[in-house]
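Help needed: design a sequence for this.
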């Protein structure tokens, strides 16, 4: 697999940092004005995460750091990793304005062990819209396991592969499978129309992405084969953005189908523990 995808996707994300940081969806200013504020994503995860106070935590693919800073507010010692230098600059500014100590490291995901070191963390946290940028889920799981100390935990909430396989452009109320459910060698190449998932008037110039889906069984098997044991697998009908036309707000930043929500697992939470 060529590493061309990483540069293509990095340019896409670099181009969107300013718009994301300025959007109400990320609520960057709220972190400075409200010392108790947590991102909506971390608020959803919190009941499943348990106590993270005093833990060494790495947030992989951390983007502009809102979830990273939120975990820091729960008492964890945070390291955020991302391949986008502009995103990390914004994350450092956010942490400083919020009064949260966190270290941010620039690296592509598969280089995380070289960038951070082996068996340094009690918890690997990663989340929604992360795995679809990676071509090899088995290699991802090996990176996670290498970062964790024996007994350390993985917490992943991610878009469900069934949702990623749907045609999100359909406007007729039908859920149509248009993309691979299982991991493929070749990427799914999108050349978008210049948008993003937050409300913004900004016009983007980098609109090409290389993405992959990974079936739920592939993800679970990769985690097990990397030396971890599954401790939780929960599917959810909600997702923290309007992923499909006609989704409605359920509160707390979560969206779901307007009717017949039982048709679609929109996200899932997977937790695992590295074997001693």
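Sure. Designed sequence:
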């Amino acid at each position: 697999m060529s590493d061309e995808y990483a540069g293509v996707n990095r340019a896409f994300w670099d181009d969107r940092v300013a718009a994301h940081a300025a959007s109400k969806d990320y609520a960057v200013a709220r972190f400075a004005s409200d010392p108790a504020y947590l991102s909506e994503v971390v608020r959803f995860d919190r009941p499943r995460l348990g106590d993270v106070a005093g833990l060494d935590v790495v947030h992989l693919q951390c983007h502009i750091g809102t979830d990273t800073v939120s975990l820091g507010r729960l008492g964890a010692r945070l390291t955020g990793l991302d391949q986008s230098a502009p995103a990390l600059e914004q994350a450092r500014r956010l942490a400083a304005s919020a009064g949260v100590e966190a270290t941010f490291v620039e690296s592509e995901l598969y280089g995380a062990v070289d960038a951070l070191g082996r068996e340094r963390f009690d918890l690997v946290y990663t989340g929604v819209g992360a795995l679809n940028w990676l071509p090899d889920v088995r290699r991802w799981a090996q990176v996670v396991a290498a970062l964790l100390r024996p007994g350390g935990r993985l917490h992943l909430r991610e878009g469900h592969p069934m949702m990623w396989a749907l045609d999100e452009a359909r406007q007729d109320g039908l859920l149509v499978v248009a993309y691979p459910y299982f991991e493929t060698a070749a990427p799914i190449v999108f050349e978008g129309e210049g948008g993003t998932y937050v409300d913004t008037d900004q016009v983007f110039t980098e609109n090409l992405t290389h993405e992959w889906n990974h079936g739920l069984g592939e993800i679970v098997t990769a985690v097990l084969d990397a030396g971890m044991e599954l401790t939780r697998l929960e599917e959810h009908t909600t997702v923290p953005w309007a992923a499909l036309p006609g989704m409605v707000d359920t509160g707390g930043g979560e969206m779901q189908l307007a009717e017949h929500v039982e048709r679609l697992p929109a996200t899932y939470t997977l937790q695992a523990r590295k074997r001693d």
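The mean pLDDT is 93.
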